[in-house]
């Protein structure tokens, strides 16, 4: 979370594992196996999409062309961060690249049961500068505390949106109740970049409760709008750049059509189930598709049971990305300054 770079004192950015590259032999095998499975299962989707397409006039088709898949990212290998979060580094080799901007990194912790304990499981105090961390709880509870005096616990459906900006020190642990009673934890954390003009703003903090997140009901499921807008409904998160963060559920065998902005980087992550994207590619649990910039329409079909997804999209930040440990700036010199400021006690 803040996770993946808890060992900030090393100041060494972890290189992506070769197994995460979709161009690697392992990923090629993964894709070939999936494609053999999906051809028959997605055939009906194509027929249904043809019917949907026929409903659009030629004019609307020009303005709502289908976003095609640019890359399929297979489920990566999970690893432990601290002793409380067993996470999948979702973006793999695309992390900290313009391809996923304005997002930087994405860690997902699949449902895992923890036994009762008297110890604190999680990640202790660590710094950040130059970006935001967005933590979404799906099951279980996560406690947060930072050097600006913010603290709290988020539970199922809640979101913690922390703007590190000029600098903050925080920690993340299982809640006292989860530790004492045990239970299942499922969560994710995104790192969201800040544009140069806001990297040294004062830190900020948003607690977004589940009850405050609007739900858009669609023909084949629903969308919880955390950030951005879906079908004219805006989410509660305040962001520095234009972006969408949607928590989606598609009903079993349901076909959902979504509209997203042209020119945005858009990724679809599968939390649970299997989904056919564009009637062609099947994506399973912890798999991700990165879509092309062109087009505005995304077609999703749940194959078999209901599918739970996250859609991440946003206008790319066209600036250099300099990342090291817990800091994300624009230049190496700024990273050195961030490190010096931390050891001088100036963060937070």
Highlighted features:
15% helix, 348 residues, seven-stranded antiparallel beta sheet, alpha+beta
Radius of gyration: 20 Å
- Taken from the alpha-carbon principal axes, the silhouette is globular
Q: Main beta sheet, described?
A: 7 strands, antiparallel
The overall average pLDDT, rounded, is 86
Number of helices: 5
N-end to C-end Cα span = 18 Å
Approximately how much beta-strand content do the residues carry?
35-45%
Instruction: Indicate the percent of residues in helices.
Output: 10-25%
E-strand count:
26
Question: Based on helices, strands and strand pairing, what is the structural class?
Answer: alpha+beta
Strand order of the largest sheet: 1-22-19-24-17-14-13
Overall description:
This protein is of the alpha+beta class and 348 residues long. It is built from 5 helices and 26 strands. A hairpin with a 2-residue loop joins strand 13 (215-218) and strand 14. The chain is globular. 46% of the residues are buried.
